[in-house]
Specification:
The chain has 2 helices and 8 strands; from the N terminus they run αββββββββα. By secondary structure, the protein is of the alpha+beta class. It has a domain of 94 residues: Immunoglobulin-like (Sandwich), CATH 2.60.40.1220. The strands form 2 sheets. The chain has a 4-stranded antiparallel sheet with strand order 1-3-6-5, with no helix packed on it. Strands 2-8-7-4 form a 4-stranded mixed sheet, with no helix packed on it. 10% of the residues are buried. About 3% of the residues have low confidence.
């Protein structure tokens, strides 16, 4: 009888040890499986939008636990530079949580959220979307009239004809010499005239 009871005792001991290991894991897994999960987001996760949204919202599989006196639901939105642009206020409407968003820089926006699941356990997550860079307006270039340089400025021709050439003025540098020569020639002419008249008178006498 003792020989038959010993194997039975060992088998019972092994089953008890296995139950002791598996039971805590099952107790932990059961509530975890009951946690609510994220169903959808607005804007959609990994989407790109041309216009920055005024609000960001997310919808859970079940309405979260929320009270006006306790800040149990949190949504934080950061723009492309990492600046927080959410207003810090979360509105809960059934399973949907939403928050207001102010203007921010374009680029990848990151949303971090936290709530209390309907089973009383905290849940949290992160998703992102991208705000496109607005197209820069193309300004029409204005033609600036070129200012002519001083060397390029020319005198406009007179109406009805070509531009008259400028005639150089007389060179008066040799005027004194010219006057001296003219005076000498005039004196010689007067002297010659007087000489010939006198000779003619003397010859006729």
């Amino acid at each position: 009888m003792k020989q038959h009871s010993r194997p039975r005792f060992q088998a019972f001991f092994r089953m008890a040890a296995a139950a002791a290991v598996l039971l805590p894991a099952a107790l932990v897994a059961a509530p975890a499986m009951a946690h609510d999960n994220l169903s959808s987001t607005d804007p959609e996760q990994d989407s790109s939008v041309a216009v920055p949204p005024a609000t960001v919202s997310l919808t859970l599989s079940e309405p979260p636990i929320n009270t006006e006196s306790l800040n149990l639901s949190i949504i934080t939105v950061q723009d492309g530079t990492g600046k927080t642009i959410s207003d810090g206020k979360v509105t809960v409407n059934g399973p949907t949580l939403s928050t207001g968003v102010g203007p921010g820089s374009p680029g990848k926006h990151t949303v971090q959220w936290r709530a209390v699941s309907s089973d009383g356990h905290p849940i949290e997550g992160t998703f992102s979307f991208t705000v496109k860079t607005p197209a820069a307006s193309v300004a029409t270039p204005q033609t600036v009239p070129a200012v002519p340089s001083a060397s390029a400025v020319t005198t406009a021709p007179a109406a009805g004809g070509t531009t008259p050439e400028r005639v150089p003025g007389p060179d008066n540098r040799n005027a004194p010499l010219t006057l001296a020569i003219a005076g000498a020639v005039l004196a010689l002419a007067i002297g010659a005239t007087w000489f010939f008249r006198r000779r003619h008178r003397n010859g006729g006498a």
